Input
Amino acid sequence: MALGGYANRIAHVDLSTGTVTYEPIREDWALKYIGGRGLGDKYVFENGYQVDPLSPENILCFMTGPLTGTEVTMSGRMAICTKSPLTGTITDSHHGGWSGARLKWAGLDGIVVKGKAAKPVYLYVEDGKVEIHDASELWGKGVHETIKTLQAKYGEKDLSVLAIGPAGERLVKFACWVNEDDRASGRGGTGCVGGSKLLKAIVIKAEKKMPKAVDRDLWKTAHQQALAKIMDPANVTSPRKGGLSVYGTNVLMNITSTMGALPTRNAQRASFVPKSEKISGEWVKEHILVDDPTCHACPVACKKEVEIKEGPFAGLRMESVEYEPAWSLGAMCDNDDAAAIAKMIDLSNDYGYDAIEIGDVLAMYMEATQRGYVNGTGGLQWGDVFGMIEVMRKIAYREGVGDILAEGTEKAAKQFGHPEIAMTVKGMGIPAYDPRGLKGMGLGYATSNRGACHLRGYSPASELGLIPLKTDPLAWEGKGKLLKLLQDLHAFSDSLDLCKFSAFAEAAEDYAAQFSAVVGIPFTADDVLKTGERIYNLERYYNNLCGFREGSDTLPKRFLEEPSQEQGSFGHVCELDKMLEEYYRERGWVNGVVPESKLKELEII
Output
């Protein structure tokens, strides 16, 4: 295959036999599914939908895209794709930092892992080859210590380490892979799948070898246009000027809380005003910010490294008090202690589990305590940070009530006999947006192919006015059309694999031009959206085969039946049924099921 941007080499690791084989990417797959999320999901699809997520037969794909590790701005992402043990759906979860770029520089587009090792192992990647090494001495260690141990062995220079922690080892259903201490592929339980295979870590050693664009003239123009948009002071991405760069993702905390769109106390409320100020990006910048690290080829530097200098958590230095975990371990749990939130995010990274789901789990447990549903498990009070920290430890090690909560928010709520207090969709906890104040996000949660997710189609970009295509957050009309557009666009960018935040400045034509230049084939904005649609429909088809069919696209009743009592969204519920009708019409689906005609139209079958 002569396409630019690709190493054209996938490593297939069979842990059951201890063998590694290599193959090129099928050119038809590359052209139809691109890389990253799309290509990883194609491998998962071809592996079969009936596979048990925690069986040796399930595969775990670590994938880059054709733009990963190139000169393209914000091109440092890696996708981890598998069948989720949390939801039973297909899932892909991405992380930033440097491991995606280094995997490409090491001469691989991806690693596909199957089987189960006889004892704990890690993979070592260098010069296009993957070796399997004994990880017995690493098993039981937290992510931070695991990374330090491997850095001591291989040297920190030109090295990236991905690892699972105790949560992954003990098959906590929302365990994740953590890269370089703080960058997590958080959602869907990818680390749980790693634990089931006794795969502890992946070590990537590679000097910078950025692939060059095939069409250098087109590249010069495409790159300059895309970079100009990212740097434009009018955009939230503008370095040192835009809100995303100045305050990080947590620039949203005060905004969503003020507009009545921040789930609080397990979404019993839709605002954390006035406490939200104390956990906001503005507060973090003023009081505890010490550095702005960045990822490969990124001028935005949204990561915010903090240091706690006083109180019980003094001496902690970590990144980052980002919007999602600051919300999940903050407002969702009625906690306004930013230092404690930093500590708990750091613990989430060290234990190796999703910092969004853990907040949902704790908040559900707090509401169960509030209502007397805990069935003698002890309970947890709102805002009790030391109680939260102890329950987090119990979850990581499956001790006591932690063994129940380790199954995830939805299953744990059912165990308590009250599934209605689980703020989940398809088994996965919601992120930091209340659908009563951001209607498009409600549709986004319901129709996400990996369970409740804000990143499949980030409608708040439109509803919060972050992009030129602005819409009313409290209006449901038009959200079906909007969401399809954004879902298709993001499916493509996730397959390149570019940072989601590039979409705050760039559009489909920018992605098309850069892809065309790097890969060397003509590609248009229409091609971008059609490819994204194909990827989204492949995922939906997989889920349909797994049993997610008519009626699966829904929301917790709280968002549908309990009106917001907060300023900004007062009296509103989420009109999901109306939006779904419009969305299915736009998608050409029949009550959430992809018809054969659509599969043929998109050349999926």
Summary: DSSP finds 24 helices and 17 strands in the chain. The chain has a mean pLDDT of 96. The first helix runs from residue 27 to 33. The CA atoms of residues 232 and 513 lie 19 Å apart.
